[in-house]
Specification:
This protein has 2 domains: 6-105 and 134-159, no CATH class; 180-356, MFS general substrate transporter like domains (Growth Hormone, Chain: A), CATH 1.20.1250. Helices cover 76% and strands 0% of the residues. The protein has helices at 6-13, 18-46, 50-63, 73-100, 107-133, 138-144, 146-159, 180-195, 200-208, 216-229, 231-241, 243-263, 268-285, 288-292, 302-331, 333-356. It is globular, with a radius of gyration of 20 Å.
Length: 363
């Protein structure tokens, strides 16, 4: 709700440049990703997840409405950093809590449901914000965000049960925490995130194809709809065939995306197909790895490994998006999608090697 309006507030209301927007997002997201291994390790050490997840949601819920009180980009930076600190604290313990709240054989459906609901909120929230902007000042919309955030906190506090796990005696990247096969899986995922690019590049491609500005929201809505709707079916498939095999579906979609972009000229039909296949890919990527990790890691160490996974994903995504954008700008769109295709195939090779040699996942 707030995140959809904050760039507009920063650039239009506070008259800041796009470079300031990039600086704020870069600093705040970096802090968020580097906090995730720390909070994950801490949740393993104390053997509890809910309290840290609750603290993270509380910090974000308190900080977001404070945008209404800002008048400089420095103040906005402080608010965004506080919000991302909350996200950094809650994410790894939340996933560890979710994985321990269900049978390991149902982890795919659990994370698929979470992804579907989370993405649905990412669609509904901006729609509500858009409606509220027509009725009140932008700063009042920021204040109004306190209501849905508080509701979520109440639900988490009252209805979510803490799952006690054995406290981990060793915290860190030891052989008990990260097995040889898990290292291969994480390496494969890091390469896959290097191959991944933000949906913004697809929207840029639509503009370069001279599509009408009115069609851009339609393309983005289609991508997000498929992103959200694929969570449950791909989660069920993960439970049925295993995370590694289900992840191959994601490779199919990102490979298809890159091939279409490489072989077809950008027009309305090709852009819609690219948005569709990439939306499906994101639905797989945001569901399957989180359901795959519990098959390699005992409950007492999942917070640590989820934190490591998110840190790798954050660093790889930053580097990958930077390289993708540089290649597009300097060498053209085919070079960018060729880069993505090459890395995704390399990642797939490592995953297949892991799958072929998989015996006991905890070894």
């Amino acid at each position: 709700m707030v995140l959809s309006l904050y760039p507009l507030y920063l650039i239009v209301y506070l008259k800041c440049s796009k470079s300031i927007l990039g600086l704020i997002d870069g600093i705040s997201e970096a802090i968020s990703y580097f906090l995730r291994p720390i909070s994950g390790k801490l949740s393993d050490k104390v053997g509890k997840r809910k309290s840290l997840a609750l603290l993270g949601y509380l910090i974000s819920n308190i900080s977001k409405p404070l945008l209404a009180l800002t008048s400089t980009w420095g103040q906005v930076l402080l608010v965004r950093v506080a919000d991302r600190i909350g996200k950094g604290i809650r994410t790894a313990p939340r996933d560890a809590l979710l994985s321990s709240s269900v049978n390991e054989r149902e982890a795919g459906r659990a994370f698929g449901l979470h992804r579907t609901l989370d993405q649905a909120g990412a669609v509904i929230g901006p729609l509500i914000a858009t409606a509220l902007v027509t009725l009140m000042d932008l700063r009042k919309v920021f204040l109004a965000s306190l209501l849905p955030g508080s509701t979520a906190l109440i639900v988490l506090y009252l209805l979510v049960r803490e799952v006690e796990v054995r406290k981990a005696n060793i915290i860190g990247l030891d052989t008990k925490t990260v097995s040889g096969r898990l290292k291969l899986v994480l390496t494969s995922l890091a390469l896959l995130y290097l191959a991944t690019f933000t949906p913004s590049f697809i929207l840029v491609g639509a503009r370069e194809a001279n599509l009408s500005t009115s069609l851009i929201p339609l393309i983005y809505a289609l991508l997000n709809f498929l992103h959200a709707s694929l969570g449950l079916p791909i989660g069920a498939l993960t439970d049925r065939v295993g995370g590694e095999r289900a992840l191959i579906v994601g490779y199919f979609f990102i490979t298809l995306t890159s091939l279409i972009a490489l072989l077809s000229p950008f027009n309305f039909i090709s852009i819609m197909i690219v948005a569709s296949t990439y939306g499906c890919y994101l639905g797989v990527l945001d569901t399957v790895p989180r359901a795959l990790i519990p098959t390699y890691v005992p409950p007492s160490r999942r917070g640590t490994v989820y934190g490591i996974y998110y840190l790798l994903a954050g660093i790889s995504s930053f580097v990958g998006n930077s390289l993708f954008g540089y290649l597009w700008s300097s060498r053209g769109v085919k070079a960018a999608f060729g880069y993505s295709l090459s890395l995704s195939l390399l990642s797939l090779t490592i995953l297949i090697f892991t799958l072929v040699n998989k015996r006991d996942p905890h070894q």
